[in-house]
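User: quick one, fold this
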Amino acid sequence: MLCIKIMKINCLIAILIIQKSNNMRIKKSTYALLAFGLLFMISCNQTNSNDQLSIIPVPMQWQTNKEYFAISGRTKLICSKHIEARKVAEYLAKKIGSYTQFTIEIEDEVESESNDNTILLKIDSSCNNLNSEGYRLKVHSDGIQIQANSAKGLFYGVQSLLQMFPPAFYNSVITSEIIVSGVEITDQPRFPYRGMHLDVSRHMFPVSFIKRYIDLLAMYKYNTFHWHLTDDQGWRIEIKQYPKLTEIGAFRDSTLVGHSDKLPLKYDGVPYGGYYTQEQIKDIVQYASDRMITIIPEIEMPGHTLAALAAYPEYACTQGPFQVAGTWGVFEDIYCPKEETFTFLENILTEVIDLFPGTYIHIGGDEAPKDRWKESAFCQQLKKEQGLKDEHQLQSYFIRRIETFLNGKGRKLIGWDEILDGGLSPNATVMSWRGEKGGIAAAQQGHDAIMTPGAYCYFNHYQAEPETEPLAFGNYLTLKKVYSYEPVPKELDSAEAVHILGAQGNVWTEYLANPENVEYMVLPRMAALAEVDWSQPTNKNWKFFYQRLLVHFKVYEALGYHYSKGSYKVNIMTTSDSAGVWNIELQSEIPNAQIYYTTTGDDPDLFSTKYVSPFLVDTSSTIKAAIIENGTMKSVSKQIISKHKAFGAKLTLKTNPDSRYAGGDASILVDGLIGGNGFSDGHWIGFNGNDLELEMELLHPDTIRSVSMRFYQDQPSWIFLPQEWSVTLYDMEKPSYVKGSFSFPVDSVDSQVAIQEVKIVLAPALRSKLVIKVTGLKKNPAWHPGAGENAWFFVDEIAVN
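Assistant:
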């Protein structure tokens, strides 16, 4: 608003001066005033506030000043007389020329006579106190200086400079000058590995998009692109010695429509496929290298290999024939560890090594079922010959063979954390995706690890409420949760912690069929993880990050990137005391959001109570809350509170739930908080292949007339209603009891998610002790795709009345 007012004043000044100029009565001071006014108008339009910083990831140290520098066609770009520095200078000059109507002339430092009106890119030994990717950036009225001890540091300094350009720069509307606010920055990354992944097997993307994706990585100072090139659903890399890998393995007959856990499965019936030629790959590798990004290719083995086996079935344990998969998941047919297979893979890897000059080759190693190996006479004989105890050690033997080959070629093996099973190869690096345990185990054994746990780093998961989002994987990963991630587990001491190289964001593309989908899923979560990887934890601040991100939203729009504005969900946080009074706090990842709520079950609107601070609830209630922005109500959050006689009761579990769905402890079954439509929302407890038995001790004896319990069903996710549940009321003074039970329909087929609350009515009795038993289904029924595997059941609030 201040800018607008001053602009109006400046316009009036300019008019007055022009009028005076007609009378030839202009003084030097008047010229100065006019110049100041016009420059102020420009700066209001094209600069970020001097006391603000819009750079992501946030630098290690920075100090703004009151100066500014104007880049124009008269500005010279001076660089160290060094070929790599020259490349960085050419990159910057090309960027400026692409979005403006002027060009920047490049000169070598020794040939330049003046430092005024210059941008200096200098490889400088005085920066040796920074690591090889660190830089110093200074913006003053006479010019810009970026200094580093390597070209990488210069490049990252350039990325920070580009982020200081106003978003209008990317709209190609600046014709004369780019105004850059004054600042001094000293910066370097926290971690040496900062990665983003992209799966091109499930869905493939054109070369133009791969480069556009790499541009995003460069913008946020990532230095590694993990390119997932092969899987069951398609082989995407040309291997000249084995042409059928792309002639057959690159194409599938059809693709699954919708989620893979929704029965019956449906397919589109449309052939799908493609691959990257070696020439295209060389071009992409060079494009990435010019942006200081190393590409790690992933060639899956021994599992996730149906596409390869469809082309060359002789390398399986069975005869085939095999088809390139059109659905997702894990398949039993994998490579057989015979000599012919190793020759096949070594020949493939030889061509891969020639294309990718980086240190690492990723061999997958994940989700390799051992069924075919157990059935194979050859594999069983190989186990005996090698003295291997089981199929996990056989996989370790497989991985070691490949690692020995790669090491002989001067490369290192990297794989998903399953390569730990059966013993880790001597020089392997572990990519920890099944939580952090794999990374912890690797680091404690002295191996390097890269952290990419699904709970924080899987960008194919929903980032906001599923009902408002495009199709994605069912888990939920918000921008704020990504930002909260700490890659170094607390279980590691300082000597072990150095083996954590950094974190990586993964993008699996089962449900991402086009570039727009990919962009939407990675932006802005990619920016959040960049700050996790680059910045010191003490410099991280969620509100400051989001404030900077708002500027980046404008850049995304100018560049035509599709992006999410994050989750507008209101998190209803509750705590309670022993008297059954709940303290309610409403939170959102959107800073300063306008939240409205009700406690009556009605949807909130602008006439509802506006949330200011936590409030208390002491009766059964249905709380609904939502953000209202520009008159539009976002998604409504709901929490039902049920006050009943079992609230706060003492529970003793005789059987244990699965540790992944234990809800902290059993007390969540009597906390008065009713679980929602997602079994992973923290209110449900899950049992896998076993039963539930618990004892409940009420706070004091009371007349009990009924007991109710809630059950969750999602058969495609292997979650079934139990067979039976029962409740027994015991008299503490004499050997008598009251019992009731409920039997569920057996073998009913229902693919819909359902929540069933079942009440058992009892003869009224004064009691304080209850025993509850739930008998699970144990195994998935014969008609189910997972027949014979352990079945789940989930339970929630036990209400006593």
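User: anything notable?
Assistant: Residues 1-50 have pLDDT under 50 and may be disordered.
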